[in-house]
Write a structure and sequence with these properties.
By secondary structure, the protein is an all-alpha fold. It has helices at about 1-15, 35-55, 60-75, 85-100, 105-120, 130-150. The radius of gyration is 25 Å and the shape is elongated.
């Protein structure tokens, strides 16, 4: 008898309606408190990498660029990244593309430059700075193509 009652309770529990789904609250990552400081940190890393590249310390610059790529990915995960975050991510990609180009990894360099072309071609509103960044990326692709053709 107890077994029959227990089995009935289990079967009836299985027939109960599913619990209501937990409502997901869409958060804007760009509004999170970590977003602006992380953007500033990536911009500082870009300045550091640029200085290291100017000094001919490409191995140290590569380490900074590699660390910066993780930050850029996190910043760009926002549904609407800020212009400052987009510029910082663009810079890290441009440095990485330049290093790939210098190492004769033309396909990968071209892909990195192409990311920046897409980024700035579609950015609104267009400004002289976004146009300059688009031109830099297009010039990078042209340089990849030129060196591949040699």
């Amino acid at each position: 008898m107890r077994l029959l009652v227990l089995m009935s309770a289990v079967l009836l529990a299985g027939c109960a309606p599913a619990p209501a789904p937990v409502a997901k609250v869409a958060t804007d990552l760009a509004a999170e408190e970590w977003y602006v400081p992380m953007t500033a940190q990536l911009a500082a890393m870009n300045r550091e990498a640029e200085g290291l590249l100017r000094e001919g310390k490409s191995d140290l610059a590569a380490a900074v660029i590699t660390k910066g790529q993780a930050l850029a990915s996190r910043l760009l995960a926002a549904s609407r990244p800020t212009l400052a975050a987009m510029e910082a991510a663009s810079d890290i990609d441009r440095f990485y593309a330049g290093m790939l180009l210098g190492n004769r990894n033309y396909g990968w360099a071209r892909l990195a430059f192409q990311k920046n072309v897409s980024r700035w071609k579609n950015w609104r509103p267009r400004t002289p700075e976004t146009a300059r960044r688009l031109k830099l990326a297009q010039d990078g692709i042209a340089e990849c193509d030129r060196q591949m053709g040699q």
